[in-house]
Write a structure and sequence with these properties.
About 65% of the residues lie in helices and about 0% in strands. The chain has eleven helices and no strands. By secondary structure, it is mostly helical.
């Protein structure tokens, strides 16, 4: 039978599973096969354990996703807030966040729908608030500014990601290409429309 000390351990602990090892394998699976292929059963198979071994660390797939997303946020590069001005710091931090999101485009909907509460999400929020304080914003104003920055950055990445995904690019047939060439040259009516538009802008 099992030793008394083994009986006190959860299944995942008895299997010798560390949380970091589980998250590393979950990251590999999601990056190679897509987040839609990440399930507790499939992850357990890759780790060579029974599915119930994972439940000692994560209550369900949602908890696993939350932990995975927070672990990935460690990849976001944070500027040295003591060495850069607030404007440059915010620009670099949001730019790094955007690049991170585009590198994990299939996770963007999950980031948008599930507020991050893990240690890395908290760290990034605190660094952003420090930069906003340097800009003269504190309290509710700083929190609202942080919310706006995140909405803008996440929203822009969500719009940009499909255009960068080669799997979503449709082949352009001869008819479409011919139409595009005609549009680029533009007929008389198109030229008149552009002229009226430029006059309205100039006026």
């Amino acid at each position: 039978g099992e030793a008394p000390e083994d009986l006190e351990l959860a299944p995942g602990e008895r299997a010798g599973l560390a949380v970091d090892a589980v998250l590393a394998e979950a990251r590999t699976l999601s990056e190679h096969q897509g987040i839609g292929r990440l399930t507790m059963r499939r992850l357990a198979e890759r780790l060579g354990v029974a599915p119930n071994a994972l439940y000692s660390h994560f209550t369900d797939k949602a908890a696993l996703l939350d932990a995975l997303m927070d672990s990935l946020l460690a990849d976001v590069e944070v500027p040295d807030v003591g060495q850069v001005g607030w404007r440059q710091g915010l620009s670099e931090l949001m730019g790094s966040t955007r690049r991170f999101l585009l590198a994990h485009a299939d996770l963007i909907p999950h980031f948008l729908s599930r507020p991050g509460r893990g240690p890395n999400a908290i760290r990034l929020g605190e660094e952003t608030l420090i930069l906003l304080e340097q800009a003269g914003l504190e309290g509710d104003e700083a929190v609202e500014a942080l919310r706006i920055l995140l909405i803008y950055t996440f929203g822009f990445a969500a719009q940009e990601a499909p255009r960068r995904d080669p799997r979503r690019a449709r082949p352009r047939g001869p008819r479409i290409l011919a139409r595009d060439r005609a549009d680029s040259r533009g007929g008389p009516a198109r030229r008149r429309n552009r002229t009226r538009h430029h006059r309205r802008l100039a006026g």
